[in-house]
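Deviations from the work plan: none for this task. Representative record:
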Amino acid sequence: MAETSSAQPGDHGNILVRFAEVQKSYDGISLVVKNLNIDIADGEFLTMLGPSGSGKTTCLMMLAGFETATHGQIYLDGIPINNVPPHKRDIGMVFQNYALFPHMTVAENLAFPLKVRKIGQLDIEERVQRALDMVQLSDFGGRRPAQLSGGQQQRVAVARALVFDPKLVLMDEPLGALDKQLREQMQYEIKHIHENLGVTIVYVTHDQSEALTMSNRIAVFNDGIIQQLASPEQLYEAPENAFVAQFIGENNTLRGKVSDMNGTTCKVTLENGQSVDALAVNVDSVGTETSISLRPERVFINPKTNSCKNLVEAQVLELIYLGDHIRSRVNVCGHDDFIIKVPNSADHTQLKPGDSVQVGWHVEDARALDMHAA
Ligand code: ADP
């Protein structure tokens, strides 16, 4: 469990947001956010990712000022903000339901945050046009929200959150109401806007591919606790616990108990009695109940060389042709839901269900994780 996670100096510069020992309870009994420590760097795109009810929105609402922390402090640019009302925090916000003013035109919607800030009319017109250009709606200023598609409305919402040049923009499932194709297109648009403007974005989603596409770092939430805070690549390649391994990407698990420790690796006796070697990630003693995490593309069927230290007998159960790879379901060590992504090469087109094969993997690709550690 990563309780304290600092932004990396040099990656993005100074710390813009700090959650320091923040807790939140709505009912005075149970904590929905438990001792949150997180530093968000100026210019970073940080995503809070996790299942529904894990505390992500609550964290965002505390940062926005719509909820108050039960314990701890939140800092913006080094200044404690627990007692600063939302409208004085100067934060841009985008939510799932657009929240545009229906009786105003698009241009009036964009001008609103500028008028509130007493910006001069000429300046307003220029900034509104720039914001419209940024979201590719240059000619839509005169329309009302109801005359726009869902995707266009959400672009206006993004433009409105950015039009007053805030240092920080919060987005809570902003693409949740859009269909898949539009959602993916908007992910790239938001990512490019972030790269071009250098604004800091804190983004909430339960969709891992959205998080992986856009973020510099992802905080994986479960049960009010950050399970791991890392780059998309680190989360996928080196999950620190069983929850993260299961939540990010596709994963095979083999259950067993540690039977021998050997420095950074360990031997695990599986439920069916077979013994395999794995990287000891967060297990450190013999007897620990373990789930070994293995990515489907890191397992080989009938490996040609002896490079795989772990070799076990397996049976092919199902093969699905997916163009660039063949998705194979095999029975490995008593598990019949074990998935292997086999590259589409001539060698493997002969495989068929029922075949007995050898399956192998490198020790460093098998991560032994404590089944009971958070
Ligand atoms: P997420 O964004 O990860 O789905 P939330 O922060 O919305 O999670 O919710 C975390 C927990 O807090 C949930 O159990 C939810 O039911 C509870 N919760 C959220 N908002 C309120 C509220 N206004 N009053 C009471 N409980 C709430």
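The radius of gyration is 25 Å.
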